Amino acid sequence: MTICKHSRRQGTVFIAFGILMALGALQPYEASAQAAPGPTAAPNRYAATIAPLERFEIEGVLVERHGSANGRPLILVPGLASGSWAWQDTIRAFSGSNPVYVLTLPGFDGRPAAPQAGFAAARAALAHLIAQRKLDKPVIVGHSLGGTLGLALAEDQPAAIGGVVSIDGLPVMPGTETMAPAQRASLAEGMRSVAGAPAAFAAQQQTYMRTIGVLDMGKADELAKLSARSDPAAVGRYAADVLSLDLRPGLKDIQAPVLVISPWHDLDAAQQGVTEHAKTDYYRSLLEGAPRVEVVSVAPARHFAMLDQPQKVNEAIRAFLASL
Questions:
Q1: How far is 238 from 104, CA to CA, in rounded Å?
Q2: DSSP code, position 148
Q3: 75 with 139: CB under 8 angstroms?
Q4: Is 16 exposed, middle or buried (0-12, 13-18, 19+ CB in 10 A)?
Q5: What CATH class has 5-22+49-323?
Q6: 187-231 tens-digit pLDDT
Q7: Cα 164 to Cα 54, 74, 106, 239, 242, distances in angstroms
Q8: I want to staple 125 with a disulfide (CB 3.0 to 4.6 A). Which of 61, 74, 164, 284 is the partner?
Q9: What is the pTM of this model?
Q10: Mean pLDDT (whole number) for 254-267
Q11: In what order do the strands lie in the sheet with 100-104?
């Protein structure tokens, strides 16, 4: 079963709006252009991150290692315009039992700008991390773009990946699955050239977080300040990379089990005309061909399900790990 044509169109509009909100306006981000907070500004409660045991770089990707346990390695990959701040609850939940590697991609969270082919470069860097650190059958836990990256690695190196947990990340951008490759590439090219002035980009990030990112408006405003630290031009290029991508032909090569976490919020869904069951079935249809796929709905939650429902997401990850 898939979502009906009307519901799919509604969902596509909603997703496209989310991408545009993530992109911002018209000039590259520059750290010096941001206004320093005044002396009375309250600290951002989500900016403080757990100190890692180790911090290093692989091909421009920042890697932070947490935990010294001997469990199965976990690699946490944030989504578009996100940094390690997105994974703090996950780090707390698993660093006592598993070595946890948290990635921040170039151009995100104040990191130096990404190369033109950002997704391909991140894909190669992740493979090199696994090889250089001799990680035995790691589980890649990715959010959005990070989930898509995890699926790509599982296709590239089927024998090396132990599992993929993807939070609202899919092998093809929902709503574009019936487009011809040339049509998808043309749509992506329009996004690749988008950049944004810092103030406009910050405003777009606030709108995005309030409407698509998370449920709590206070949390949304604080998280938007963090995502606004990313380079708008890099955000546009990564979004274009993912929009032009279709990993479905390679899903049959994946050997690792795949868990997809599908966020669900009834008020948002009412606007899209989609039921909870139809959404999980639709996600499952986009993963057709992968040998072992489970799609789990987490509610109430928006796109950053691990921030809206950290306990439920962590429980789903823990159950997945126990099944390997």
A1: 13
A2: H
A3: yes
A4: middle
A5: alpha beta
A6: 888 887 666 688 999 999 999 999 999 999 999 999 999 999 999
A7: 24, 10, 22, 21, 18
A8: 61
A9: 0.89
A10: 97
A11: 54-58, 61-66, 100-104, 74-77, 139-143, 163-167, 258-263, 293-298
Q: How far apart are CA 20 and CA 86, in angstroms?
A: 20
The answer, yes or no, to whether the previous bond of 300 is cis (omega within 30 of 0) is: yes
Q: How far apart are CA 73 and CA 132, in angstroms?
A: 14
- In DSSP notation, 195-209 reads ---HHHHHHHHHHHI
Dist. CA 283–CA 18, nearest whole Å: 17
Q: How many CB atoms lie within 10 A of CB 114?
A: 24
- The C-alpha atoms of residue 253 and residue 157 are separated, in whole angstroms, by 9
Q: Please calculate the CA angle 82-83-84 and round it to the nearest 5 degrees.
A: 135
In the numeric block, which tokens belong to residue 317? 């990850």
Per-domain boundaries in the chain: 5-22+49-323
Tokens of 186: 């043309």
If you ran DSSP here, which 8-state letter would residue 171 be given? S
